[in-house]
TrEMBL record:
Its EC number is 1.14.19.3. It is an enzyme of class 1 (oxidoreductase). One of its GO terms (molecular function) is acyl-CoA 6-desaturase activity. It comes from Luteimonas terrae. The chain crosses the membrane at residues 47-65, 71-90, 165-184, 223-244. Keywords: Membrane, Oxidoreductase, Transmembrane, Transmembrane helix. InterPro entries: FA_desaturase_dom, Fatty_acid_desaturase. This is Linoleoyl-CoA desaturase. Residues 74-342 form the Fatty acid desaturase domain.
Length: 377
């Protein structure tokens, strides 16, 4: 059963007013951005570095020290995995993702430059800036334009055409979660077009070259160099790095899927964005997003994507401000009779899991408000 109340249809004038209020909120917020935000992101960057050093150090202590003091092996290695995974999660979600959205370009800090930042996953920053910042945030949940709808692997919405291949998607979803960074890395390569004979080998080779170089660098670092530094005790370090990357992959997958694929999230046909007004754009972001409750710790560990609605509204606003913004965003939605999709992590991920299981089988599209009515009654 839907946890949202029915959506009130808005007139074109109401849609314009809805968009104007959200634009005004964005303007007021950006006028406040300054020293507090700079101090915050620099503090998180320091946490990332401290956690990474501590995590890798504990893995070495467990690997080498455990050979001489056996009881030290498991506690030190487990702690090392936890801290290294935490460093990777914070770097990806609170630093990398948000920096590449340009949230801190105003600082003119070369380490936080949205156009140059390269994060700690095998996907290149350039590919992410195109597939995510441009395509996903411009065409959010528009079928045939937003490649994040199922990532080319999963049928999550009944509006997606069913094929027998999707019967395997419960298994594919688990594998995708474990290797999520690799899925993100190859997303922009359009392998489906290549296997369908619609892309020449030369183009694929050129597009893959920077991705392949980055894959090689990170695999060399995590699975060769750091393990070899432990000498004959390399195995715990190797497995620790593998576990930390796996934890980061699964957590990122859960957060992203809970922000985009819960029960009441909608997709839209291409004609819905024809002559799209500002108010209509905000409405599409609202209906295509969902939040996760959980407080400050959840906000930090998700890079504040626990407030996916606010992020889709204001991707250039420093994300640590989303929690405060959500109070006013929710009030605006209530006044205009629009549902605000939020819920606990178990509930939201439960809905995602049900979608993956249900739409592995043939299903009919839901009856939705016609695309024209999304723009004006």
């Amino acid at each position: 059963m839907s946890k949202l109340t029915a959506t009130r249809r808005l007139s074109s004038q109401e849609l314009d007013a809805f968009g104007a209020e959200l634009d005004a909120l964005h303007t007021r917020t950006m006028a406040q951005v300054g020293k507090v935000d700079a101090a915050y992101i620099r503090r998180v960057v320091r946490w990332v570095r401290y956690c990474a050093v501590l995590g890798r150090g504990l893995l070495f202590v467990g690997a080498i020290g455990g050979a001489f003091v056996p009881w030290l092996l498991w506690p030190a290695c487990i702690a090392g995995v936890v801290f290294l995974a935490l460093a990777k999660i914070l770097e990806n979600m609170e630093v990398g993702h948000n920096v590449m959205h340009g949230q801190y370009d105003w600082m003119h800090d070369p380490e936080l430059d949205s156009n140059k930042y390269e994060w700690d996953i095998v996907a290149t920053g350039d590919n992410w800036r195109h597939s995510h910042n441009f395509r996903h945030h411009t065409y959010t949940n528009v079928r045939g334009m937003d490649d994040d709808i199922g990532y080319g692997l999963l049928r999550i919405f009944p509006e997606q055409r069913w094929r027998p291949f999707y019967l395997m998607q419960p298994v594919i979803a688990v594998v995708f979660a474990l290797y999520f960074q690799w899925g993100v890395a190859i997303q922009e390569l359009k392998l489906g077009r290549f296997f369908a004979g619609k892309m020449p080998k030369g183009k694929l080779a050129r597009d893959f070259a920077p991705v392949g170089r980055k894959m090689g660098r990170l695999m060399l670092r995590d699975y060769v160099i750091f393990p070899l530094l432990a000498g004959p005790f390399f195995l715990p370090v190797l497995l620790g790095n593998l576990a930390a990357n796996g934890i980061r992959n699964v957590w990122t997958y859960v957060v992203i899927f809970c922000g985009h694929f819960t029960a009441d999230v909608e997709t839209f046909p291409k004609d819905s964005i024809r002559n799209e007004s500002r108010g209509h754009w905000y409405m599409r972001q609202l209906r295509g997003s969902s939040n996760i409750g959980g407080g400050k710790v959840m906000n930090l560990l998700t890079g504040n994507l626990s407030h996916q609605i606010e992020h889709h509204f204001f991707p250039d606003v420093p994300a640590h401000r989303y929690a405060a913004l959500s109070v006013e965003v929710r009030e605006i939605c209530k006044r205009y009779g629009q549902p605000y999709n939020t819920g606990s992590l178990p509930r939201q991920f439960g809905e995602v899991t049900w979608r993956i299981l249900r739409h592995a089988f043939p299903s009919r599209p839901r009856r939705r408000v016609p695309s024209g009515e999304l723009q004006a009654a």
